[in-house]
Amino acid sequence: MTQLKNPIVVTGGAGFIGSNFVLHWIGQKKNKVVNFDLLTYAGNLGNLASIEGNPDHVFVRGDISDRKMVDTLLAEHRPAAIVHFAAESHVDRSIVGPEAFLRANIYGTFTLLEAARAYLATLEGDAKDAFRFLHVSTDEVYGTLEPNDPAFHEDTPFAPNSPYAASKAASDHLVRAWVHTYKLPALITNCSNNYGPLQFPEKLLPLMINNALAGKPLPVYGDGMQVRDWLFVLDHCRAIETVLEKGRIGETYNVGGGNQQANIDVVHMICDLLDELVPDSPHRPYRQLIRFVQDRPGHDRRYAIDARKLETELGWRAQETFATGLRKTVEWYLNNKAWMEEVTSGAYQNWMNANYGHRNEAPLSPATAGAK
Ligand code: NAD
Ligand code: DAU
Questions:
Q1: Is the pTM of this model over 0.90?
Q2: How far apart, in whole angstroms, are the C-alpha atoms of residue 97 and residue 208?
Q3: Do 80 and 131 meet the contact criterion of CB atoms below 8 Å apart?
Q4: What's the Rg (C-alpha) of the chain?
């Protein structure tokens, strides 16, 4: 960044990807980071324990929908850029309770855009030219693919299917409009499914690892043949860094690992890694814990990302394969059981009951486990 003395503001930097990004950024001794996060159920300061007391990291608890607070934050810290991760991020929760998603993802992004616009008007010269707003978004805005459809491209029309996806699509549209109308120097990244350390165990990989280690059922939705394009979280962080530093204002960049896997295959891989890494477990072979359960309503069948624009224009490449990334991930959860215990205490059990209590967890055949 050219304004080297000024920090960057990271929203949602106590969540899964945000905290990985903050640790990655601080590790490279770039700008200071002002981490602005509401600490919802998904935010965890424990994710940032390794940089506790580091003067290059300032944590501020607050809501991106609170305009007064965001204005004060920007006026006080004079950031060179805003990297916007903060969001409600879990599709199943958006089905159970969509309102929080509209508030955080749409109204929150709107508030942040307006605050950024007002802040930009106070900048001059190089500081104004260098300022960037990077909006972190998802491939789910593009909807779902049939097995032989080409991967999502930056020009694929939006067709969001879940309340989460619709709220993210709305936020992407707001960012686009603020670039077009107000010349806000913003960029958007649309990324596929992330996995890696520090992911809250409501999402597929950490949930399966956590349940397996406890000898609990592994709930695979529907027939388990839904396809996701998995990317190791650090590769996503490096992509965001690349787009922030080299991306063209107003552009969207798709980010993905070129690594499509059916859910059931991912669960099998996790089970087999656990068999290898926890040889004395009474739950081996872990595949015996798999249960096909009632599907997610409106479940998208397949996502796949075409990341060639990011690769050819900006030179980004994913560094992890799924085999290396998955092994690192499983090992991380095995070595960080205290982290898992902390995040699964308290309200976590309420969510597990709300989302899985009504699903038939009998060992159905995949064909009979479809949504009713
Ligand atoms: P997460 O749920 O793990 O973390 C979200 C963070 O945002 C939490 O720390 C939470 O406290 C904070 N937050 C929520 N509402 C807030 C508010 N109103 N004000 C301030 N902070 C608030 O999410 P994640 O998986 O790390 O995803 C981060 C971003 O990346 C999201 O925008 C998500 O849509 C996007 N994304 C995620 C994935 C993925 O696979 N996880 C893939 C592509 C894009
Ligand atoms: O594609 C990017 C998106 O990936 C991000 O924008 C979202 O924030 C992130 O949560 C993720 O969404 P998914 O819905 O794809 O992720 P999740 O981990 O919830 O589910 C992955 C797949 O696994 C999906 O097809 C549903 C299935 N699944 C999930 C859970 C939690 C199961 O079969 N069983 C489960 O218990």
A1: yes
A2: 23
A3: yes
A4: 20
